[in-house]
Amino acid sequence: MRASRRRATAALSVAACLLALPATQSAAEQRHGSGSGTDRGTATATSVYRITDTDSRTRTEIQRTGALVLSLKGDTAFVEADEHQVRRLRSAGMRLSRAAAPSSGSPHRAAPGDFPPEDSGYHTYSEMTEEVEAAATEHPGIVDRTSVGRSARGRDIPAVKISDNAGTDEDEPEVLFTCNQHAREHLTAEMCLHILRRYTDNYGSDPAITDTVDSREIWVVPMVNPDGVVYDVGGTYYRGWRRNRESAPVDLNRNWGHKWGCCGGSSGSPNSPTYRGPAPFSAPETSAIRDFVESRVVDGTQQLTGHIDFHTFSELVLWPYGYTTDDTAPGMTEEEYRRFASIGRSMAATNGYTPMQSSDLYVTDGSVNDWMWAEHGILSFTFEMYPSSGGLDGFYPPDEVIQRETSRNDEAVSILLEESGR
Ligand code: 0X9
Ligand code: CA
Ligand code: CA
Ligand code: CA
Ligand code: ZN
């Protein structure tokens, strides 16, 4: 058994104290930082609700109230909402029931700014940069440590290139893996670091890995949103933070420049967790990745052919477009859509995730996949990792699952790297 007993005990005693108070926010949710102090901007308390029989249309409607669809299990959505949003959803005819409070959370941590001791398997920002440096030192021939730029608060955003002759730009298909656009989705940084280790430590001993490294240029950006990550673990409890750390924090996955703000799939309100920012690429973090991707256009040809952006959670494989529920749209022919769906399904068959067009989950505009595909023709997917469902605790799985849940995507990552050569 993992070290959850102590947490659960702590949670229960806190919960007991709160029973005497108006039940606006459960103890466990408070411990996960929902309500005041989250990136909702206002001091409205939120809770997690279960809504049955949803579809893409109703889930998009849910998002439009400012509530957040956290995960999907069949047709049942788990939704984080405040009282005002709950009233709006109920008056729209939806039936909401309070989801059970998360069973585990984080206790006081030894040192603010770090993960609590029982979650020390997760990498802080500085541990992530150390791991990247170490990979470059240990594998000088095949690892090149670079940077895509700086975050809003001036933090370096490391990028790693893995390839034979890593210091040379060779004529090989290039593939990009990005993680942690959303701050609280910590398992994703572990996913990127796992990819880094897998393609370096096994080079020269595993023939398939060696062949891939020799025939591709693999780019990995483990933490797109370092400010948000540092903030999320910077308090006594996990904060449940999603956005970056500009003074008006931006949801980076609504800030990309294709069909930005077009379709009700983001918010113009700085208080919303899905705030799209004042302009496309207003956020330093998205514009840094944009500049990097544009720098991969060599002699008029985009070198990057494949991309996965890792998120948590819901165990989904998603492909564009997100801004429209139509399969085809400008820049997406039927044949291209079929290719996305077919690769998405074959990847999902290896990890047990559910494959779908991203707007089948809910409509988003300004998300990364739409821009990568529409502007650069990059085969770009979103993976929503473990767990398959749950409330806010779904963002904080115990570190014991890291190895299992990152290696779970090995075959899918291999498929993308393979397809990117076609
Ligand atoms: O809303 C998002 O940005 C992603 N989900 S998350 O819970 N990690 O925030 C999903 C983006 C995929 N695109 C669409 N659903 N359209
Ligand atoms: Ca642990
Ligand atoms: Ca090479
Ligand atoms: Ca190249
Ligand atoms: Zn996310």
From TrEMBL:
UniProtKB keywords: Carboxypeptidase, Hydrolase, Metal-binding, Metalloprotease, Protease, Signal, Zinc
GO cellular component: extracellular space
InterPro entries the record matches: CARBOXYPEPT_ZN_1 (IPR057246), CARBOXYPEPT_ZN_2 (IPR057247), Carboxypeptidase_T (IPR033810), Peptidase_M14 (IPR000834)
A matching Pfam family: Peptidase_M14
Residues spanning the signal sequence: 1-27
Domain called Peptidase M14: residue spans: 121-420
GO BP, sorted A to Z: proteolysis
EC numbers on record: 3.4.17.18
Span list, region Disordered: 25-48
Cofactor: Zn(2+)
Reaction(s) catalysed by this chain's protein: Releases a C-terminal residue, which may be hydrophobic or positively charged
Protein family membership: Belongs to the peptidase M14 family.
Protein known as: Zinc carboxypeptidase
Phylogenetic classification of the source organism: Bacteria, Bacillati, Actinomycetota, Actinomycetes, Actinopolysporales
